[in-house]
Amino acid sequence: MTVFRRRAAPGPVPRRRGGPVAAEARWAWLFLAPTLIGLAILSAGPILATFGISLTKWDLLRPPDWVGLENYAALVQDKRFLVALRNTGFYTVVSVPLGMALALGLALALNHGIRGIAWIRTAYFLPVVTSATAVGLVWAWIYAPSGGILNQLIGLAGLPPQKWVSDPFWAMPAIIMMSVWQGLGTSVIIFLAGLQAIPQEYYDAASVDGAGRWARFRSVTLPLLTPSLFFTGILALISAFQIFDQVYVLARPGKPTEATVTLVYFIYENGFKNFKMGYAAAASWVLFLIVAVLTLIYFRSQRRWVHYQ
Amino acid sequence: MTAPSLARATALAPFRRPRRRRLLRLTRRGLLYGVLVAGGLIMMVPFFWMVITSLKTRAEVFGAAPLSLPSGPHFENYANMWNAFPNDVTFGTFFLNSLKIAILCTAGQLVTSSMAAYAFAVIPFRGRGPLFAILLATLIIPFQVVLVPNFILYRTLPNPFSESGNFIGTQLPLWVGAWFGGAFGTFLLRQFFLAIPQELADAARVDGANPWQIFTRVYVPLARPALATLAIFTFMWTWNDLLNPLIYLNDLDQYTTTVGLAFFQGQHVGKWPEMMAGALLSLLPMVVLFVVAQKYFVRGIALSGLKG
To answer: What is the domain range of residue A265?
Structure first.
């Protein structure tokens, strides 16, 4: 994963004033012009701007009002924000490992080169391709308190029907299950690619040395799969913190119960329903800092547990 | 069991009980196959349910068991969903809007990401490394973090042609940004361009080609699989996007399928047959795209995920 390994780019650049290299270098800026504008105005620049906006109180109708770090102080005391933090944290801590473990199991099973694998792959990847809105609608029905499939199924086992999405205890697990279901396909394919890249010789050598199936998995498969695990993990971590669509579709109408308010929903609520732009910006900046710190830690840990071939 | 005797047992085993081992392997494989197919079917159950629900009447949906088959295919649900909106707006309007925006975004990403990837991969220039690192850093940031400033930007820029005087309430914020580069596409294409031998570019240079010609005549044709992959992913993400159309669009006739579905859900509570019809209709292009282009999907994810 070359995200922060700058040495992966081809060699150092000669620094002559004129000449063919410098002339071609000028072309580079031409090719990069749209991207540079985009970076400045739409991505890197706005992140700095978000910080600036978070230092104001702004409802878009009147000019912004400078309030310094007041928004941040208010955030720390805002119960809904803390609940959003907690919910998002819970969601991440549960859905990321769960999704990865399930996907790994599936990939190991699918790696056997069975006939008809293309169809099975399509089946597992279809949820990924579906829009979150449609997925949310389907699962809203599955989770429906009266007449939903899930309640009917557990009714067969003699258990009482639950309210699921409106139940403060079950709401987040319900959303987790739905997201894991939808996200399986991508992870499975990444793991499959990683599994297929492991040379058969390593397995043969391990068998000759007397390693059983579990030992082979632990000392050959798992270590050589760590780059794929790393990549899937970072994707899962980042998208877990961004969860919004499923909550919006499943937890409406009305307000979501406290149990499903997530960070991005909090930002959306404050920015685009209550028009408290400064407050929403402060929450965005907190989200950014959290993701940045976690990603940094995650990348640093790479050295300890990821083996590149 | 110690290692040497285990090895001896494994080595001798094929000669000792071949038939029993084969039976064991067959049953294990059969079990595996069974579990996979069962799992696949479970994944498909929601879709199956969507299809049969869209063909039922409302009474059947609430009365009979969820997975029961409809009495007869009630295609009028599709017609009802199609026409359920006021002012001459139909579901087809949403469909066309989604299509237009997705195509514009895909085209924009293809053009600008490939240009940037070419610069990063092929042209040596000062600051190339740090600049690429900055670009990649924006990948990590959840886009919701820049949601507020982008919204304010589009609100501040004057637009004489719109009702609001700025860009809010138009479809422009949904696709213009795609024409200004993209970190994912640039990263993906750069990996691909790096794998193309330098000799080809050098040969073209010797023939007097300028970088633009090398780009269009050598690199772009060779990068078709990666471009196809990027196109598919961009189309998929744009087609399924809910948040951006939700905050930038106000008028019903500009809505995309995602917002249209959410709107319908809010207005007509409990009309499951029609809603499932709408969800299936909006899903159709993506399914077709995936079935047709499956190998590009797999290759695209593998390209970006394997060794980095």
So the answer is: 69-305
Partner-chain contact B132 A25, CB within 8 Å: no
A266 with A244: CB under 8 angstroms? no
Cis check: omega of the bond before B18, within 30 degrees of 0: no
Please answer yes or no on whether B266 and A285 come within 8 Å at the CB atom.
no
Gyration radius of chain A's alpha carbons: 24
B70: DSSP letter: P
Cα distance between residue B67 and residue B52, in whole Å: 8
CB contact under 8 A, B53 and A47: no
Q: Assess whether A246 and A273 both reside in one domain.
A: yes
ipTM: 0.74
How is A206-257 classified by DSSP, letter by letter? HHHTT--HHHHIIIIIHHHHHHHHHHHHHHHHHHHHT--HHHHHHH-SSPPP
Q: How far is CA B250 from CA A20, A183, A215, B149, B169, in A?
A: 52, 31, 59, 19, 5
Interface contact A268-B37, CB threshold 8 A: no
Nearest to B43 among A127, A194, A197 (CB): A127
Question: Which of 1.10.10.10, 1.10.3720.10, 2.160.10.10, 2.60.120.10 is the CATH number of B80-305?
Answer: 1.10.3720.10
Which tens digit of pLDDT belongs to each residue from A66-96? 888 889 999 999 988 998 899 899 999 999 9
CA-nearest residue to A295 within chain B is B140
Closest CB to B279: pick one of A5, A134, A238: A134
* pLDDT per position as a tens digit, A18-67: 677 777 788 889 999 999 999 988 888 888 888 888 898 888 788 888 88
Domain contains A8? no
Determine the distance in angstroms separating the CA of B88 from the nearest CA of chain A, rounded to an integer.
24
